[in-house]
Amino acid sequence: MDTSRTAADRGSALDASSSLADVFELAQQLRVDSVRCSTAAGSGHPTSGMSAADVMAVLMTRRLRYDWRDPRRTDNDHLIFSKGHASPLLYAMFKAAGVVSDEELIDGYRRAGSRLEGHPTPALPWVDAATGSLGQGIGIGVGLALAARLHGYGGDGALDNGAGPHPHVWALCGDSEMAEGSVWEALDAAGRYQLGEFTVIVDVNRLGQRGPTELQWDLDAYARRAEAFGCAAVPVDGHDVAQVDAALERARRRDRPVVILAKTRKGRGFSEVEDKPGWHGKPLPPDMAERAIAELGGERAITVSGLKPEGSLEEEKAPQSVRDEGATFPTYSLGDKVAARRAFGDALVALQSRPDVVVMDAEVGNSTYTEAFAKVRPERFYESYIAEQQMIAASVGLSVSGFKPFAATFAAFLTRAYDFIRMAAVTGADLALCGSHCGVEIGEDGPSQMGLEDLAMMRAVHGSTVLYPSDATSAAALTVAMADLPGISYLRATRGAYPVLYESGERFPIGGSKTLHTSDRDQVTLLAAGVTVHECLKAREELAQHDISARVIDLYSVKPLDADTVIRAAEETDAVVVVEDHHPEGGLGEAVLASLAGRVRVNGFGHLAVSSMPDSRSAAEQLDASGISAPHIVRLARELLTGTNEGKGK
Amino acid sequence: MDTSRTAADRGSALDASSSLADVFELAQQLRVDSVRCSTAAGSGHPTSGMSAADVMAVLMTRRLRYDWRDPRRTDNDHLIFSKGHASPLLYAMFKAAGVVSDEELIDGYRRAGSRLEGHPTPALPWVDAATGSLGQGIGIGVGLALAARLHGYGGDGALDNGAGPHPHVWALCGDSEMAEGSVWEALDAAGRYQLGEFTVIVDVNRLGQRGPTELQWDLDAYARRAEAFGCAAVPVDGHDVAQVDAALERARRRDRPVVILAKTRKGRGFSEVEDKPGWHGKPLPPDMAERAIAELGGERAITVSGLKPEGSLEEEKAPQSVRDEGATFPTYSLGDKVAARRAFGDALVALQSRPDVVVMDAEVGNSTYTEAFAKVRPERFYESYIAEQQMIAASVGLSVSGFKPFAATFAAFLTRAYDFIRMAAVTGADLALCGSHCGVEIGEDGPSQMGLEDLAMMRAVHGSTVLYPSDATSAAALTVAMADLPGISYLRATRGAYPVLYESGERFPIGGSKTLHTSDRDQVTLLAAGVTVHECLKAREELAQHDISARVIDLYSVKPLDADTVIRAAEETDAVVVVEDHHPEGGLGEAVLASLAGRVRVNGFGHLAVSSMPDSRSAAEQLDASGISAPHIVRLARELLTGTNEGKGK
């Protein structure tokens, strides 16, 4: 150990050659700053960072290759705090790196207007993805590593394999979060892809939020699990900086993912709380903080220059988001029966010329038609097997690296990944999701396979776009549009094949709608999307035989909704009927009501949705049994017109 | 092997002493019937059952202890098909057991009105829980095993430990579903509880929906994982009935959970499809079905009596759902500041005298206050650690066994378990869920910890009840009410402490509301629930200073909503303002609109909700920044009244 620089040297500027004694001083500074900022804020999790401070001090000084002044460099390493509640530690590291001032740290943490939020978000340029919902960081890290490979960096784990120096992904996890199944989905993926460029550090501090963790300090148990999922497990004393340093150094050179199991003590360094229960998520009161800082050796002013990445690839290897104008988009003939999900797959194939487009599957690619993309661009197709959470987590990592992931499974099974989708919105990731096999229309497979909550779920995601095409032309066009949509966009795709309604070349602006039938004497408006558009078209014909003229509007853009068209229809006709293959709550019906609310007085309003629990029967029988088929629409429209035939109260 | 009865004996009635040769004949019958019913239906997954037919034939003949005529016996074993798509096999077993006729099987499967749905549901009395969303069966099985222990059966895995014979739980899984993280959450729980009474059989047929599974026939890899999670792994040739029988026999006697890894071939027994890709989820066309049946040896008429359970416990050991009238329910003093989540915990303690109440935590029991119950009834408190999916899965198993689980975590983290909640509704489970820390009100922790989608998510669940109390009195009363609510009920609990608004003893009927302020000259109605009720009360005072009289209604029952009261308010006042700490979509605002739609013409309507992405700041600052605090309510109410002061158009 280099002892020429010592603990007394409190204003050091550390670099990769600094002694481990100095690194330990940095660790103490990280602890002191974790205490200081959380006590100043009056909330936060200082003890959860104090356990990991030694590991992080070693990492940032001697092993992390990161240009703090240029976080956008594609050859930077990545550091993701899966244990996002340890944000005081992360922000203390940012201070040590010289990119956050002490003033910002102490006065800003957890305060209004500050980017130093309670849990890290990409409001900070050194944060790849928002964390705080535990068990997500490893899966996102897998996506970051896969993105680096797509950027052209080698994938065999070598530091320099001729394709340029290899950015490494480091994820810091808590031990409690190892109980999340998503962690094992992620480690399985890391092992499968042989991500030698990925190191997970588990801060095994034994204490969770409400008491001891399940496995406490049983590093062997963690090691068996990690090894069984294809990773190399490396137990270390997380407070022995030399051991930690050696482990990190070796991890960087391994040809498979490494899980470093760091045995640590929560609240390390302050005897009043160290390894004591009852101190999770609590800042120290000011008097205790004072004693803690004293016991930790007081404040320091250590800065770290660390290691820079060795040089990025040539610019042209980065993905371009410019549309290839030469792409051929799918066309369909009017009246032909084509499933929306098939059009989705066709459109993905058309998007293959965009180098930023990647496609993610959860072992249903032959149902969602993502396998069409897999055939033409296998190098940008990722099979997640039946692990929907990991599919979304990896998508987030790819998205924040500049790629545009299209991730698809049955609409019903996207519910499995709702927490990941919600968090992706916090990250600000641009994800294009497709949920196929929506609604009772799937028929015989029964309710377990039916997406009947997906519109509610996806509409409620912050900043989301929700699309629900009724035919192949619109499905393909909207899929292509999703490639350029920011935030979380969602395409709801029907299983069955229905007639093509729109000419190829028709445009489907986001927030638009299509009025499929209208006249200057419309009495009722039928509003639908997806499969129920076809039922409304049938109902219109039947109503015409009763001398009732119906306007039929395809609300393919559920969010944002074409409020102007809906309002006009409500003003111009005597009744409005919304029909949807979804539970009554949170779907198209309520989206329509929200667009009308306070803006127009509707006379007759009817809403047909799936209110009962479906069973198994054919698609047509399902629509009828759920009360959303043409005969039900006709009946309700006639009832509403009878009930409101005293005229409009405009 | 007993050869006195042979394959030629095609009308056999098998029992536990039947020869393995006869058991193989049963397996062939199960294959033939799987082919027959799916070909007749024109859909379904015959090949996924054919791989597991030998294992199931052995199990049902020689190892399963089940009274087919009395599926409600608490001493029955449980058999859960986690691979629910193998329903043809399961239903063929029901036919062999004599409880489903051949006619029902062939003419009913997947048809309208039949209980033989595409994926099993408890419409069939021998099915504990609905499956079909993969990766859920093991977790539910854990709940069934825990329930049996609560029923008084011994927990040490012994067949007879003095507490009566021990019902065994058998779960059949596909190999593809082992990719779901929830499987590892479940096996971890099985290992932790040392569930010797639990056996998982993985049908390792190597082929998933779209091609080979990740691990194909690498039984060693599966074994390492299962062992690492605390289970005994037993690899067998799944088509060697003697090997299978020995493994099942030993599994029943183990003192820890066993994972039998059965190496099998998909489509086993019909050479045209056996171990061939491209046959997932496809019935055989009639001509192929004919050849398959011939190759499998034709139809048989084998029935199975199998083994009965050895006798149930005395009646009084079963849980009673009768309320203990002596229970003391919590009381609070008007104006005292008490958090709704604390009242939830208080009410759980009060419910301790109900022997059916069990409480489930996901390592946040000190935040949700479920730990209050843990202190008084540790034997009915289950710590799931941070594994929300497993928390819900175990709850389903407990619910279908007659218990009433209360499961709680942060509202945000219930999104993690949405697929499980959705499926619990298909099962018809009675679950009481609590999501604490809802909305931006949580303050400094930031968006990762905020439930802002939970009302949309929970409202969209079939048959759900959604409750959102504004104070401790109502929170406690609604918690107690949930103990008797059928289906999925959800209590949304605010983090912070707010003044008690209601006297102890006040009643809060489901579907009701409380009008907190009204007069005969109300101009505007303020509708809210939870924390925004308090903002509306402040706004009312402020509006009064502007000579505007506001009606304030606490819509604590979000679903069902008190439509009559809302309609009356809309009729009697000139404007309606809904205020909620939730994203605008799918929450209280849209619930109000749905209740008004087509029933009353609203003049002025305003909706305040959380439209922007929050950051970290204090609770009060959050409410203000999100535009849902009293000043925003006052401003909007005044605007609406100005805009509609030409009077009502009634």
In short:
2 copies of one chain form a homodimer. With 650 residues, the first copy, chain A, is α/β, with parallel strands linked by helices.
Task: Characterise the protein shown here.
Two copies of one chain form a homodimer. With 650 residues, chain A is an alpha/beta fold. Chain A contains 23 helices and 21 strands. The first copy, chain A, has a seven-stranded mixed beta sheet with strand order 10-9-11-12-14-13-19, with helices on both faces. In chain A, strands 2-3-4-6-5 form a five-stranded parallel beta sheet, sandwiched between helices. In chain A, strands 16-18-17-20-21 form a five-stranded mixed beta sheet, sandwiched between helices. Chain A is elongated and about 90 Å long. The termini of chain A are far apart.
* Percent strand of chain A: 5-15%
Q: Report the strand count of chain A.
A: 21
What pair of chains forms the biggest interface?
A: A-B, 112 and 112 residues
End-to-end gap of chain A: 86 Å
Give me the Rg of chain A, rounded: 28 Å
Helix content, binned percent of chain A: 25-40%
Largest sheet of chain A: 7 strands, mixed
Mean pLDDT of chain A: 93
Judged by helices, strands and strand pairing, the structural class of chain A is alpha/beta
Oligomeric description of these chains: homodimer
User: What's the shape of chain A?
Assistant: elongated
Give the number of helices of chain A. 23
Strand order of the largest sheet of chain A: 10-9-11-12-14-13-19
Low-confidence stretches of chain A: 1-8, 156-163, 645-650
